[in-house]
Amino acid sequence: MARIINRALIGHQDFALGPGTVAQQRGEHAVVMQKIELPFIFRTIDEIRALDYNKYVSIGWYEGGPVGEYYFDPLSMALADNIEVIRPLSLAPHEPGRYIKLHYLTGQFQTVFDTIIASASDEYTPISLGGPKTTFRNPYPLDMTNGYVRIGLTVAPDGADFIVDVHMNGVTMFSTPLHIDDGMDTSVGSATPAVLAIASIPDDAKFEVYVEQIGLYTAGAGLKVAVTGVKIP
User: Which of 28, 52, 194, 210 has a Cα at 20 to 30 A from 92?
Assistant: First the structure.
């Protein structure tokens, strides 16, 4: 809450409860501060208690308002109720709205990712073109907004890049497929980064792995695929 300090006056906005404003004056020093209404505090607490804590990892003050905090705002009812914003359901459309912008914790506590790993070949038999080399399914839906897919080899390709496409429910997941550079054994750090074309993966989606290019002199062997995303409750 706001705090104003000078030699003759200390004002604490968090002590000013009720509608309207409050004025404090000591000698020639004066300050007028907006009060905080008790119904606002109680409704805020009720909405925070009602949050789905499996979906929302933490709550952050909305930083686009005039005071950069959870606040009254007439446009809230038009906002989508999604992973970033929770729209209050207790307010009628004609009432002033309030909303919370949500974010994942940073620092010591990070967003929890889940990874599904599948082998697409044995360890040392040279891999041929085509596919599907393997088929597997995910046991729960994944949010891929910040997700990624990686591939790795036991034996690196020689003479050309190793290129893999992964289909989900019969359609490619990528606008640029996965590359392992010539002589390398992982797609991480490739000169041609993969670009996902999807934002989420539904429950029980079917994955199929296709090899689009192999090494010229050494094809590559021991292919594994790892799909990483945030588990959707």
Answer: 52
